Amino acid sequence: MAMLGFAVQAADTHPVKASKYAGQEKRAIKSLSPGDIAELKRGGGWGLAKAAELNGVPGPVHLLEMKDEIPLDDGQVSALSKTYERMKAQAIRQGERLIALERELESHFQNRTITDAILRATLHSIAEARKELRYIHLATHLKTPEILSPDQIKKYNALRGYDDPDPCANIPQGHDAKMWRKHNRCR
Questions:
Q1: Hey, CA dihedral for 60, 178, 22, 123, is it positive or negative?
Q2: What value, to the nearest 5°, has the Cα angle with vertex 16 and ends 15 and 21?
Q3: Global pTM value
């Protein structure tokens, strides 16, 4: 009994630290934030094309946003718009598939119907859907250098802040400042 009294006393004097996940238990799909779901439903990049973007292979959406600064001619704008629209349609379909699979996993946990076999199969499907979604975004980046000149790619990278000697001091337009600082290890 003395042990139990000690445990209660210790709990009273040392409050339990809340999990960094506290509040997320109210999400419809625990593994996806509302922002994640919105990004997937609109065909957004969700950070899946960083391997291309941060290695100097631009994507069409940012190129179109900066068409006047780069500058792009009408033919380039048309080609990039078509490339983007195809990618977006594919990404929306694949994003919806990923959301549905995450919802299925969520449902199995909520309903206590999860088994090892269901878990393995569902995780495999989720991994395949995510892989295909990432492929869609990265493969689209592979198409843009064919449309641009090397000088335009260089200008794009400069405008995005990728060749900046001090990326922490110059956050490119369109980037979330907090995430930019985190990814560039700014203090």
A1: positive
A2: 145
A3: 0.77
Question: Would the pLDDT of 1 be above 50?
Answer: no
Q: Where do the H-state alpha helices sit in 49-144?
A: 50-53, 60-65, 74-110, 116-143
183, amino acid identity: H
DSSP label at residue 172: P
In whole angstroms, give the CA distance from residue 70 to residue 94: 31
What's phi and psi for 45, nearest 5 deg?
-70, -30
- What percentage of the chain has pLDDT greater than the value 70? 88
Is 54 within 8 Å of 41 (Cβ atoms)? no
Long-range contacts of 91-94 (CB under 8 A, 24+ apart): 91/43, 91/44, 91/133, 91/136, 91/137, 92/41, 92/42, 92/43, 94/129, 94/132, 94/133, 94/136
The angle at the Cα of 53, spanning 49 to 55, to the nearest 5 degrees, equals 120
**String of b and e for 131-154 (b: at least 16 CB within 10 Å)?**
eebbebbbebbebbeebbeeebbe
Q: Look up residue 76 and give its two tokens.
A: 């380039």
Cα separation, 72 vs 61, whole angstroms: 13
Structure tokens given for 145: 């250098």
Q: What is the pLDDT of residues 121-168, one digit of tens each?
A: 999 999 999 999 999 999 999 999 999 999 999 999 999 988 766 667
